[in-house]
Each structure stands twice: as C-alpha cells, then as structure tokens.
Amino acid sequence: MNNTIQVCTRCVMDTTDPEIIFDDEGVCNYCRHLEKVMPAYNFTPEQAEANILRITKEIKNNKKGQYDSIIGLSGGVDSSYTAYLAHKFGLNPLCVHFDNGWNSQTAVSNIKKIVDKCGFDLETYVINWPEFRDLQRSFFKAGVVDIEMLTDHAIMATMFKIRKKHNIRYVLSGVNIRTENGMPNAWLWRKQDLVNIKDIQRKFGTLPIKEFPTMSSVRFKLIKMLNTGGTYVELLNMINYNKNEAMETLKKEFGWEYYGGKHYESVFTKFYQAFILPYKFKVDKRKVHLSSLIRNGEITREQAMEQLAQPLYDPAELKKDKQYVLKKLGFTEQEFDKMMTEPPKSHLDFKSDEWLVLLWLKIMRKKKMS
User: Fold this and answer.
1) How does pLDDT run across 7-47, given as a tens digit for each residue?
2) 280 closest CA partner among 112, 95, 144, 113
3) For the whole model, what pTM was predicted?
C-alpha cells in the first residue's frame, strides 16, 4: 500500500481526502473548479456596491411585517459581517441565535456588541439540553464523522420555523464561496438526513426525540421546489469578501473579538475540529479553510504550510477543554478514549434517505434534459 501523501501544488489539500483528484500539473480538483466559477463572483468596488444596493432595495420594498429579513447570528466572522452589511445599508433584520449549550463567552459577547450597536432585535432559541446531549452522545457511540450534523440540522429547522412565524421572506445568509469552498464529501454528511439522525438515536440513545427541531429531506426538497422557504440572500457573494479585512472592520466597528479558528466560536466545534476529527478520523479541517484563503489571495501557500506545522491544540488548553466536554456530555475518560480508538463508521452503516435524494437528483437531471 502506498502511504505517500500527495499535496496540491497550488493549495494545501492532499490525499487525506480520499476523493481528491490531481491534474498533470499537480493542481487539485477544488482549485480547478473554483478557477472556473470564480469569475462570476469578482466585482469592481462599484459593482459590489450596486449589488448590495439593488438587493437591499428589493428587501425593503417587500417588507411585510416588523422585520424585512432574518439572519442567523453565531458571533463568528461571516454572520457578524453579514449583520454589519445589513446595518450599513439600512436593513432591519431579526437576528436569531441558536444556543445549543456550547457557546463560548467570546461568541456571546460578539453577538451582544453587534445587536446593541445596530439596534437589532435578537431572538435566541435555546435547545432542550438533556435531549440534545443524548443525541450527541449517540453520535459519539455510533462512531460517525459528522457529529456537527445535529446542530446544523436543528439550525436549519429552527430558522425556517422562526421565519415563518414572523412572516419574513428574506433570509440573509453568511454562506460565501470565497472562504467556504472545497469541503470534501468524505469529511461530512448531508445535514437534512433526518432518517440517519433518528436511526442513530434509536440504536444508541436513551431519550426519544421530542423537542429537537427537525425537518426531513422530503419536506426540505418540497419547500425548495414550491419556493415556500423564503428567499436566501448571500450578501457576501455579492462583494469581494475578504475574511481578514472583514475581521478588522468588525473589530473597529463593534470591538468584536476573534476566537482563534474557523467556527471556534463554539467550544464543542473547537474540540471536535481540533481534536476529534484529526485523532479519530485523520481529518484536519485547517487544510480546507487555509486552502480557501490561499485561493482568495489572503495568504500564501507557504504561510498555510507554516500554520499546518503548528499543533492543533496547546496541551494545557486541550486538557482543559477535554475535561469540560467530557463532563458536560457525561462520558468518563475511559469511555471517551475507547470511542476515539474504535474504527470509524460510515453514516451509511445506519438508515439513511440518501437513496431518495439520489432518486430526486436523477429525476431533476432528466427533467432538465427533456
């Protein structure tokens, strides 16, 4: 068996992604794909401002109730900068924060600073902790890679419910192609797969799913097809978004604080990405995040390599975070360490609606061809 790791000659993605493909120049498929699609997202300063003015005018003109839009606010860079743009261009969004019990103090502080200065209303959805804790424990016991699927699924369902309650059409999303491209399919699972969540909980859980926010793939697809899920607006894809410049603006405007890594505004996400993924699944998500920044011209490949050479965790900080996470989830160190050394399982080792999604895609492809 060849254990040699091949690294892209342009970014830092490598063969730890089992599906990566390199061309004759040693450039990976993620870099080549972005090369093709990126021209549609490059704007002059005048074009970027015109894009934002056009969509914000549309949002204001279609306001039906108290709020003209809704935004999920985590305290991280992307959602915070989206809120900044909404304020700058005169929108009045309802800010929604999903509290899954793992917020860092930095995230909480960032959210407060933003809503206070912008004068935005904030609605916080607090998860039923015993139920969510039991679900997270089940995913650990199952040995699947995407433990964060639970939070992402619940956020999606919660945002839909709150948007519908307030009759808000426009959803301001922090999704962006510049700093969120090139995530390998093997490193996550489809967030809408409620069948997968339910089967894992049925096999390993001790509590029934009662209050955990859910939305099936069928419902999600129908909502999308019937256009009843609101209009998603990706403001960051309408400008030449630069993460480092965005952070400087947020610090200046709000006294916003950085939390040390992509999605590290959550204590659990930090521990998951910096310890669980690399230790059990041999996945270092820094490669994806740094590669995105390379492609966006924010750092060089050499700078990314230097960052990857640094330890994922300070030993003292790892010890503290591990103790905190284990205590909160109710695992002994022996139980946890045993799970970390057991072979990973595929999400497809459990029931899934993947077949339904593949069938849907097949029908959609035939429809386009006809």
Assistant:
1) 999 999 999 999 999 999 999 999 999 999 999 999 999 99
2) 144
3) 0.92
